Amino acid sequence: MAASISTTGAGRELVLRGLRGALKLFISPLVVIESERNLQKKAPRAIPVFEIFKQVLVASSVDPSHRMVLEVARAVALKDAPIVAAARRARATYLATYDQKHLISQRQMIQASFGISVVFPDEVLKAQELADAP
Q1: Integer Cα distance of 70 and 7 in angstroms
Q2: pLDDT tens-digit profile of 9-58?
Q3: Domain map (residue ranges) of the chain
Q4: CA-CA distance, 69 to 92, in Å (whole number)?
Q5: At what angle do helices 10-20 and 121-132 cross, to 10 degrees?
Q6: Could you give the CA distance from residue 127 to residue 49 in angstroms, rounded to a whole number?
Q7: Dihedral angle at the C-alpha atoms of 100, 22, 50, 36, nearest 10 degrees?
Q8: 123 with 111: CB under 8 angstroms?
Q9: DSSP class of residue 117?
C-alpha cells in the first residue's frame, strides 16, 4: 500500500482524507493481505504505518460473497475479481489503485460492466475537489 510507504503523494492523501471523514473508504480483506505481503517483501519499514492504517480501515472492510466474486470473474481475471467484487458490494463510485497491469488497464470494461470507475488515487482527489468547489 503506497500510502504506508510514502509520506507524500496521492495514496497517502487519500487515506488521510478518509481517516478525517472527508471521504468514505472501504478496503477488501484481499487488499489487506496483498498489501501486508508486498510490504514484507519490498518495504518492511513501512509496516508500522500500514498497521495504523489497517486498524482504522478494517472497520470498513468489505468482504464480497463467493457468488459475487464468481460473477465478477466472468468479466475480470479471477485474481482481481475479489477486489472488484468488494467495490461492487460497497457500491463504491471509485476503485482507487496503482495496479496498472490488472485493474487500470481494465477500467473501461469494469466501468461498463459494474459502474465502478477504476482510477489512480489522484483522480479521486481531483474529483472530490471538483465536487467541493463552489
Answers
A1: 37
A2: 999 999 999 889 899 999 999 999 999 999 999 999 999 999 988 888 88
A3: 2-132
A4: 15
A5: 50
A6: 26
A7: -40
A8: no
A9: E
